[in-house]
Amino acid sequence: MNKYVLAIDQGTTSSRCIIFDKSGSIVSSEQREHQQFYPQPGWVEHDPIEIWEAVLHVSQMALQKGGLTAQDIAAIGVTNQRETTVIWNRNTGKPYHNAIVWQDTRTSQICRELSSHGGQDRFRAKVGLPLATYFSGPKIAWLIQNNPAIRKAVDSGDALFGNIDTWLIWNLTGGTHGGVHITDVSNASRTMLMSLETLCWDSEILEVMGVPESILPGICSSSSFYGYAQYIAPNVPVCGDLGDQQAALFGQTCFNPGEAKNTYGTGCFMLMNTGDKPIPSQHGLLTTAGYKIGDQKPVYCLEGSIAITGALVQWLRDNLRLIEKSSDIEELALTVEDNGGVYFVPAFSGLFAPHWRSDARGVIVGLTRFVNRGHFARAALEATAYQTREVLEAMEKDSNVKLTTLKVDGGMVHNNLLMQFQADILNVPVIRPKVSETTSLGAAYAAGLAVEFWKNLDELRSNWCKEREWLPNMDDAKRQDLYLRWKKAITRSFDWV
What we know:
By secondary structure, the protein is of the alpha/beta class. The protein has helices spanning 48-65, 108-115, 124-127, 136-146, 148-156, 164-172, 185-188, 203-209, 244-251, 310-318, 328-333, 373-399, 416-426, 438-450, 457-463, 476-491; strands at 4-10, 14-20, 26-33, 45-46, 73-80, 85-89, 99-100, 159-163, 182-184, 218-220, 223-228, 237-243, 260-264, 268-275, 286-291, 299-306, 343-345, 363-365, 406-409, 430-433, 466-470.
C-alpha cells in the first residue's frame, strides 16, 4: 500500500523534500541550501546542476529518515521558485549558462525597449503581467542574444528552456533518456509568454521577444500524470507541478473565490483566488493562473509580489553581520519598544507590487544618534508588514472583496513579533496553520489528487487546521501614522538608478 506522497520544494535559497501522510502531516523532511552567485550588481544566478544534485540528496535523505522506499510513495509533486530561467542541451543535459534567478535585473534594457512600443502594460491584456525584469520571457531573450552557444543550439534544435520545475521534472523522468519536457499553467503564466485565456504559448509575443516555440515545454494541468520517476523513487508517477506561491495557495486550501494567503519567504507573495475568470488588475497587481486540476477549468488569482522580505534578514546576517542566524532577528528587535523612527525600504532589485519601479533602490530613513541595532532589526521586520499592507489594499480595490482574515505561511511566520505587527498594521486577524510548510503541501496535494490518494478538495479542506491566531491590538491613529511614514519612506527610494 502506497501510504505517502513525496513533495520536492525547490526554493530560491534551498531545496527541500517533505513526505506527507494522508492527513497532510509531515512524516519526514530534509533541506539543503545552495549557492547564490552575484556576478554583477543586480545580477543573481544559480547553478542548475547543483540544484538537481541538492534535490537528489534531500529526497534520498527524507526517504531514509522516514524509513521509506519507493514502494511506500504513491506520487511525486514538484513546486519551485518561479521565473528562474534555465536553457540546457537536450542531448547532454548540461546547461549552457547558470540559471538566471527571478530577482535578477539584467533584462531592464530589454524591458525598456519592449515597452517603448505600447508601454509597460503592452502585453498585460493577454498575460496579466507588466513588462518587468521579474519574468522569464525577457530572461530567455537575454540568453539567446548574449550567448552564442545558445543561439546556435536554438537554431540546431538542441536547446530546451524551462523554469526550475521543468528542469527538475525533465531530469527526474529520465533527462537525456526520455525526460518529459513539460510545465504547468501556474509556471507558464509567469513567463509572460502564455495567454491566460487559451493557456497556450502566444505566437505574437514569442515573435516580438524573439523566443522560438520549439524550445518551450508543453503546458499541462497542475495535477496530471506527466511520467514515471527514474530517480529518487523509480517508477513512481510524477503528477503534481505548481509554482511555489500557487502551491502555497493550494496547500492553504484557498479553493473559493475571495480566499487569500500570504507567504513569507525570500520575498513575500500574497495570492487571492478569483475563480475561473482572470481579473485584470487596475492597481499594480499581477493576474496569474492559480492552478488547474486535471480536465477542470483553470482557477485564476490576483497576486502581489514583494521582492525582498526574508532576504532582508539574510542581508542583515550575511552582509552587515548584525545577527548570527536569521532566527536571532526577533530577539534583537525585542530589545527596543518600537522602530525609533527608522524605516527600511529594501528595494535591492527595484520594487515589485504595487509600484513596479525598477529604478528604485534600498534606503534607510529616519536615522538619529538614538538609533541602535535593535531599531534596525525592528525596522527590517516591519518593512515586510508594511509592504504586505500595500499589496492587500491593492487587492481589495481590484477584487471588491474586503479581507476578513489572512492565512499565512513560510519561514517568517514563526516570528511572533512580526506576525503580531502584521495583524496590527492590517487590522485583520492573522492565522498560521498547523502545517506551515504549505508550499510543499500544495505540491503533494496536486500530485495526490492525480492518483486519487486524496479523492477531492473537500478531503483536503478537512486536513487544514489552525495552530495560532494573532488579533489586531493597535489603535487606529497610531496605525495610520506609522503607515503614512512608511508611504513617505517608499518615495525616497524612487528614481535612484
